[in-house]
Amino acid sequence: MQDLTERSVYREDHEQFREQARRFFEREIVPHHAEWERQGIVPKEVWRQAGREGLLNPMLPEPYGGGGDFGHAAVLLEEIARTGASGLGFPLHSDIVAPYIHAYGSKAQKDRWLPRMAAGELIGAIAMTEPGAGSDLKSVRTTARREGDHYVLNGQKTFITNGINSELVIVVAKTAPEMGAKGVSLIVVEDGMPGFSKGRKLEKIGLMAQDTSELFFDNVRVPADHLLGEENAGFKYLMHELAQERLVVAVRAAASIEAFLHKTIAYTRERKAFGQPVFDFQNTRFKLAEAKAQATMLRVFVDDCIALHLRRALAPDRAAMVKLNATALQNRLLDEFLQLHGGYGYMTEYQIGRAWTDARIGRIYGGSDEIMKEIIARTL
Q1: Which residues are part of the catalytic machinery?
Q2: What 3-state class would DSSP assign to 164?
Q3: What is the pTM of this model?
Q4: Containing domain of residue 256, as a range?
Q5: Structural domains counted in the chain
């Protein structure tokens, strides 16, 4: 895919990693993704293959990951978007779950879990959302009561990405419910612990190959050394890491726009209506020209945010801005691209229809549009 503008944010090693990821995706992902969408899940063996290829935890130092930085994670996100492989839960595993453990875990915790996550032998998830608490993390009702050398965990989570496949889950729970947000902790639960169960695979309108489920905790006795960081410091940790999560969403949205802009240009050049290519109609060219102008503007902003994050200088309000803008533009432009495909755009054989549906969640997860606006408004 030709870049819309000259990009300077990536180094040569980032582009080499892109080529490695692209070869893997073309060989192991693209030929099978439609079948995984029908099954509603990506097989665990694909995770093991990605681990052997060095594609998991790319930004963490060895032996916990690939020894790279966020630039390596970003090019992998762009390849996921380029291929439309929306079922892969690699970004949540590598760019959200693993960094929590690396940032706040003890050396023993990092040594125990991160090398296995890098190998794809331990699939990660994070359990924040509950039936009555989405973006409002202060309102979580899941509790973790200390009893000797264990925490006793009780509660329910929903909309959990990688939920069915998950073998390690960071659970957001109240260790001091009377303290509200100041009583939240992060506790790691492993698959197979008595009382930990996975509910049904949730039926979504998009991201069909991504296993999203409910999780239940019924008097789960979790060893006290599974606490991440300090007790009652979880809300602070969550707020600190959410900027990266929001940038992850924006990087993927921008790359999706660019990929489907190119696909739509190619389609309209080939598709004929009234005896001429659809591209030759002024309306088509103007729509695509406007899309290119807007996508280029977004690309400059996203790359600036990547550069800031590589210097550890991405502020929460800037992360909120880039997520808000990227996902809004993605939803608007993919709708335009689908329209230019006509009836075929509504057929599952064309990627644009699936991408259009998949994009809608971007304005909700990682903090809804309304939460992003509230964060930005605090800086006015």
Answers
A1: 245
A2: coil
A3: 0.94
A4: 236-377
A5: 3
